[in-house]
Design a protein that fits this description.
Glutaredoxin; 2 domains; four-stranded mixed β-sheet; two-stranded antiparallel ribbon; 6 strands; elongated; binds 2-acetamido-2-deoxy-beta-D-glucopyranose; disulfide bond; Thioredoxin-like_sf; transmembrane helix; OligosaccharylTrfase_OST3/OST6
Length: 280
């Protein structure tokens, strides 16, 4: 009896070991056709797919692949204090939506996002310590250096993103920005105010011949243009740059770019110069 008990115990023990080794639910891996189908289904609901660590491994580490994915690595949670991330996300969504409703839409290219708070393991795996980062995952192999967009140099305006994607994937995306009427509205209001002002002062329009007023206007226009406000308006550079070590750069390191703060410094110095020259 005792030996039978011992045998039963032994069998039970092996049974436990077997469960521990094999019992954990295996992560099922999908075939290429299944993965493409799943990505297509997800993309039909949302133009930007959300990837956490597991999904990232399922769709971007799995091979073979026959699709490209453009991933934005970001940190949108408020406590991460990434101000540019929201702006970058807006531009990225514009590109993804433009692609989704364009003629070139196919299952060759998908757009996705990995948020630090959902996929910090992915950030670790790729040794990323900043956000936002735009990366292209090619159909074959790992991303190369050029598959990470150099946003320090070129910014991340939707048009720039589309151009970079065209270089990496040969898929041309025409960017459609949802029209922004606030600018037009502001202009109409401004014209209205000026018109009302001129009407009220219609009997006394002497001030229109005031040289100082026109001079100040022209000077301000020159200052705005020479300090690069138009470039800011078109390229949308960051206000300033905070490096991973916490150092803040107010002035762009290359002659190909600028920060908004930098243009304010230039404007301030120009005004200082004019004041000094005038007082001579
Ligand atoms: C990728 O492969 C899957 C499965 O063979 C296929 O359904 C899909 O059309 C392919 N995609 C492209 C872009 O060729």
């Amino acid at each position: 009896m005792k030996s039978i008990m011992r045998l039963a115990l032994l069998i039970f023990f092996f049974f436990l070991v077997y469960i521990c080794v094999n019992g954990q639910p295996r992560r099922q891996s999908f075939s290429l056709a299944e993965r493409v189908q799943q990505l297509t289904d997800m993309a039909s609901k949302k133009s930007v797919l959300r990837f956490n660590g597991n999904k990232f491994r399922d769709y971007l580490k799995a091979s073979p692949r026959n699709y490209s994915v453009i991933i934005m690595f970001t940190a949108m949670a408020a406590q991460r204090q990434c101000q540019v991330c929201r702006h970058a996300s807006d531009e990225f969504t514009i590109v993804a939506n433009s692609y989704r409703y364009s003629q070139s839409y196919s299952n060759k290219l998908f757009f996705g996002v990995v948020d630090f708070d959902e996929g910090s393991d992915v950030f670790q795996m790729l040794r990323l310590n900043t956000a936002p980062v735009f990366m292209h995952f090619p159909p074959k192999g790992k991303p190369k250096a050029a598959d990470t967009m150099d946003i320090q140099r070129v910014g991340f305006a939707a048009e720039t993103l589309a151009k970079w994607i065209a270089e990496r994937t040969d898929i041309q995306i025409r960017v459609f920005r949802p029209p922004n009427y606030s600018g037009t509205f502001g202009l109409v209001v401004l014209f209205g105010i000026v018109a009302v002002f001129l009407y009220v002062r219609r009997n006394n329009l002497e001030f229109l011949y005031n040289k100082t007023m026109w001079g100040m206007g022209a000077l301000f226009f020159c200052l705005a243009m020479t300090s690069g406000q138009m470039w800011n308006h078109i390229r949308g550079p960051p206000f300033l740059h905070k490096s991973n070590t916490g150092q803040i750069a107010y002035i762009h390191g290359s002659s190909q770019g600028q920060f908004v703060f930098e243009t304010y410094i230039v404007m301030f110095l120009s005004i200082l110069y004019f004041i000094i020259v005038r007082n001579y």
